[in-house]
Amino acid sequence: MATEVLAPGTTAANSADIVVVAGAPVHASLYRDDEEKIEPRCTCPVFKQDPNGNWNHTTWSLNHDSPTRILVGAGTYQIRRSGGLDYPTGISID
Q1: How confident is the model at residue 1 (pLDDT cuts 50, 70, 90)?
Q2: Domain range for residue 51?
Q3: Residue whose C-alpha is closest to residue 28's, from 75, 82, 74, 72
Q4: How many angstroms separate the Cα of 94 from the Cα of each of 8, 16, 91?
Q5: Once rounded to an integer, what is the mean pLDDT over residues 28-40?
């Protein structure tokens, strides 16, 4: 069952921390309450926390063309929603 890590909205916001343990991948997804396709300008980069607690860019993102991603590397992640969206978009994991 999916768990919401960022409620649907149209403004810039960060998800709750997503903890991935070795051998237990996490599936992250964008969603809209109206069940329509994610709008083209929605891009949500994935960040990973380093040992010092700093957030670092990864090469991954969730977006219109790739609204889902499987996080497989152990660590703590955060997904950041871009602002200025026309339709409320949220992030869930399972």
Answers
A1: confident
A2: 3-93
A3: 72
A4: 17, 14, 11
A5: 95
Is the model's pLDDT at 20 over the cut of 90?
yes
Question: What is the number of domains present in the chain?
Answer: 1
Strand 26-32, strand 3-9: pairing: unpaired
**pLDDT tens digits, residue range 79-91?**
999 999 999 999 9
Retrieve residue 5's tokens: 């890590």
CATH code of the domain covering residue 68: 2.60.120
Task: Kindly provide the residue ranges of all beta strands, DSSP E only, lying in the chain, ordered along the sequence.
Answer: 3-9, 13-14, 18-20, 26-32, 43-49, 55-63, 68-71, 75-81, 89-93
